[in-house]
């Protein structure tokens, strides 16, 4: 860490320390002016607005590892060594005039590829156990790992952000709500090396034990592409449960997968009440994928008999051109995925086998090319109640009442 970086980091730390005295007096605002601000990780505080000028660039450090003992670095990485971090916070706004936060992830990616890291890479923004979070009107570049990661959070808004990383960068997810509720993601452009949005809720026996689900999540007006991930991924860490997810007006292009649910024996938990509509795909390898073999486990203590419950998944109003495979819908033997509904889907598919299905049950209507046998039973008129509808979501999730907390920002 050179003298300039030490000075910049100290400046940010001093500013946050000073502003903390205003936390109980109506809040405070930290304005980052035009310029390039090279800094290591710094902690946010409650009742803070961090505002970046349109020509301001916060640069995350990739040199801190050289300045700390290995054990201390390892502990610090667990706590978050990205550009911004916070825990147990209330009322935090990270915004501006499309300023930039750059994680400078290339060094971390190279360490990962060379298998020289003995600890995890940092997220660019990680917020834990916090509520009332708004992230908006900014550009995020080159995260070492996941870009925006709210974990154990409530009332989170991410809107009008651009997230970019090279298409070959490892694990550079865009936005990963993790064991969080009341999350709204809208009007975002994401192009990264992995999932654009990945919804998670805990890993195997630890997620089952902690039992903090991700629920009431809205995604709308999302555009993006990837080569090694998905547009919207649910899982694979879903052991605490994921439900009440509503996504609409999505456009994915030149991508590996559009929509995926990832799970495996040993996960336990559930994914239920998912509604995805108004999707446009161009140049996507696989439109819809249920992957029941996401079988990486944290250790040997997981229960292989802990089977996930996957049910009431509706995907409707989808059009796609230059699609290789329409659907790989693979449930688990002795654990059928139930009430899968495909409605009004039209895909121009290049594969001679557009659908591959097993251990699933559901219904379909107006699907081209013709769907697989387990889904050929018509949804109309007898089985419409088995599909998860938008009206169900509005009633069960309180979506219509969300205006109060959305407008409050």
CATH architecture: 3 Solenoid
What do we call the CATH topology?
Pectate Lyase C-like
Query: Which superfamily, in CATH terms, is the homologous superfamily?
Result: Single-stranded right-handed beta-helix, Pectin lyase-like
Query: What summary fits the major beta sheet?
Result: 21 strands, parallel
Number of strands: 25
Task: Please mark out the parts with pLDDT under 50 across 5 or more consecutive residues, or reply none.
Answer: 1-6, 64-80, 395-409
Give me the Rg, rounded.
22 Å
Which percent range describes the beta-strand content?
over 45%
Average pLDDT, rounded to a whole number, is: 89
Q: From the helix content, strand content and strand pairing, which structural class follows?
A: mainly beta
Number of domains: 1
- What does the overall shape look like? globular
* Helix count from the secondary structure assignment: 6
CATH classification, class level: Mainly Beta
Distance between the termini: 37 Å
Pfam family, one: Glyco_hydro_28
Keywords: Glycosidase, Hydrolase
Protein name: Detected protein of confused Function
GO molecular function: polygalacturonase activity
